[in-house]
Amino acid sequence: MSRNSRKKSPNKTITEIDSTLKEPLDIVRDVKTDTRLVKLQKMVGRTTFTESRNLATLIPCERLYLKFEGNNPTGTQKDRIAVALANSCAKLPYGGITTASCGNFGAAIAYASNYYRIPEIHIFIPRNYHVPKSRLKIINDSNAIIHLVDGTYEEAVILSSTMARENNWFDANPGMNGTSEISINAYAEIAFEIISDLRRAPDYVLCPVGNGTTIAGIHLGFKKLFDSKRIPKLPKMVACSTRRGNPIVKSYKMKSRIIKDLTPQDIVETKINEPLTNWHSFDGQEALDALYESGGFAETASETKMLEFTRSLRIEEGLNVHPASACTLAVLAKTTSNNVMLKGTFICILTSRYT
């Protein structure tokens, strides 16, 4: 099937999907010779890293730096793993690629897979989620098929994976087909970039957590640097999330070294916290391990504070971030609420721009 001959299907619910096995297609691409892929590789990563002096009056810490992932093509850190997963798919004779998403990951997978000319792109989205129109536009513009699912994100993952097995699609869902290893290694690049820019190891790195993949990957990157003696210490990883339900934060606060699921009834989803809240974190154990291995911790932030720091970032730093990304600053401010100056170097990861 050529790129031009592929027909774009309308949005479908899970019950409307044709489960006929697709014939495998050899779509292996050579990144070094395909100019489209060279362009994609150059667009992803090497994101903005800056010291924030303007927020010093709001957060009394010695040195504060921001790592803004909104510079990536679709506006989030998920472009990093989307490229890695699309590349893995393109090396094998799959008939397509699929993932479940609340919006960000689906847009990233669709965008990267379109560059790799993967024949079919299937994105499963819970019907009741507040997916921004900008994310839906990226998915549609990438010639992906959106499947609306009556259920939670976790249920959408299961359905997407089931359809992957039945249709010979590459399963890009977290925790499936080795995707966790691919994704965590892709996020390790964030640590490499931080050290390249900072020229030393920070004391703390604060990262938003939902499934936990990003924080696990950044920690892995620092571990690789430490093991190769490029940095003298491991930064303490801090998992930042919503008060309204995240297994990583809950498990840490219970002093558990084993990730413990919540129940669907334990979480409250809103337009602000959707990237952070879930009852099952697919890479939660890896994230929890990162906290204990680095001597870090986990903390929550209120949506009010997330919105407050979203405004502060826009006014003081000129960065337009999604409120969930600002949870790192909200947690840091919460930690310094007694107005005692925190010594050391702090990195706040801002995972996505607001679109």
3D structure, described in words:
- The protein has 355 residues and is an alpha/beta fold.
- It has two domains: 12-36 and 77-171, Rossmann fold (3-Layer(aba) Sandwich), CATH 3.40.50; 45-76 and 180-350, Rossmann fold (3-Layer(aba) Sandwich).
- Helices cover 38% and strands 17% of the residues.
- The chain is built from eleven helices and eleven strands.
- The protein has helices spanning 35-43, 78-90, 104-115, 133-141, 153-167, 179-198, 213-227, 247-253, 284-294, 303-317, 327-335, and strands at 12-13, 48-51, 61-68, 96-100, 121-126, 145-149, 169-171, 204-208, 236-242, 297-301, 342-350.
- Strands 2-3-11-8-9-10 form a six-stranded mixed beta sheet.
- Helix 4 links the parallel strand 5 (121-126) and strand 6.
- Helix 2 (78-90) packs across helix 3, helix 3 runs parallel beside helix 4 and helix 6 packs across helix 7.
- Residues 1-29 have low confidence and may be disordered.
The separation of the N and C termini measures 34 Å
Form type: globular
In the predicted model, the low-confidence regions spanning at least 5 consecutive residues are 1-29
Number of helices: 11
Give a short synopsis of this structure.
This protein has 355 residues and is of the alpha/beta class. It contains eleven helices and eleven strands.
